[in-house]
């Protein structure tokens, strides 16, 4: 298949390597000129780790040319980049040209559905619950792939296209997916905010000093209790909407194949399996800039509509906003556009089933 990857970071480069490894032809587009220039100069993306090798790619600076004529578009960028990328690509997409959001965060597919409706485009949007690969970009054309997850969740918008979306992901990436009912399940069953934000906050001095620290061994029993409290509130919201979710323990067992036991021991198992990654060494990091406004704030918005009490989540947003000196509650462009807080629970579920008509 011909695939256009929109993004030039960790997940985008890992996608380029894996998809090329599986026989697909890849074009990579980035909004950042330096990333396009680096890829164009190299002509390949080099993968290291569990998926190693050289992947020939075409680098494209023009978004319209990048998506023209390809079989599928993969958006592989941080959540805060989703609104501008989706707004920019919507005029260039054609009906029937599927879009895979890898991974989705906090209603991204609903936002894209609205943009596509405005341009008269009808197609299938496929949400991946998390990145299939744990990866770290070393430079503009080299990526270290630490793991290839055993299983992640997938859903489609409209929900009726779920089986087709599953088949597409299997053709692209292999048989590593479980089909869920709708994209709201996928957005709510995002575990990254639950286990990213607590270790960041609890190891704040390490981040500020740019220390070399590994995340997993620094998730002690107290940090694990913080994670569990956030996760219980997220799961309570899912239950209120009638969604089937996985606990953070279930996620690590299924995605990384480690035994189910207490969280501290499970994170130790993940450390031994992945040999990393290094924890954040700067405040400008997606563990907060993505996972608070596009994760925790999204969870809280849905919880408020459902009348679910979420004091730990609320306090976590308040605390990180104070640390960073910005109001994360107002920085989710997806929520600002689709305004879930003005809807009923039934309307939100209907939107997740059918999208914008």
Protein described:
The protein is α/β, with parallel strands linked by helices and 357 residues long. The chain has 2 domains: 2-181, 3-Layer(aba) Sandwich (Rossmann fold), CATH 3.40.50; 192-354, N-(1-d-carboxylethyl)-l-norvaline Dehydrogenase, domain 2. It contains 17 helices and 12 strands. The chain has helices spanning 10-21, 33-42, 63-67, 82-89, 108-118, 162-173, 183-188, 192-202, 204-208, 221-240, 248-256, 263-274, 286-289, 292-306, 311-324, 333-338, 345-354; strands spanning 2-6, 25-29, 44-49, 53-56, 58-60, 72-75, 99-101, 125-128, 133-139, 142-148, 152-157, 177-179. It has an 8-stranded mixed sheet, with helices on both faces. A hairpin with a 3-residue loop joins strand 3 (44-49) and strand 4 (53-56). The chain is globular. 49% of the residues are buried. The mean pLDDT is 95.
Q: Rounded to an integer, what's the Rg over CA atoms?
A: 19 Å
Tell me the number of helical segments per DSSP (H or I, 4 or more residues long). Answer: 17
Oligomer: single chain
Contiguous runs where pLDDT drops below 50 for at least 5 residues? none
**Overall geometric form:** globular
For the largest beta-sheet, the strand count, sense and barrel status come to: 8 strands, mixed
CATH architecture title of the largest domain: 3-Layer(aba) Sandwich
What topology, given as strand order, has the largest sheet?
5-2-1-6-7-8-11-12
Give the rounded overall mean pLDDT.
Answer: 95
- Termini distance? 29 Å
Strand content: 15-25%
Task: Identify the CATH class of the largest domain.
Answer: Alpha Beta
Q: Structural class of the secondary structure composition? A: alpha/beta
- Please provide the count of β strands: 12
Q: What is the fold named in CATH at topology level of the largest domain?
A: Rossmann fold
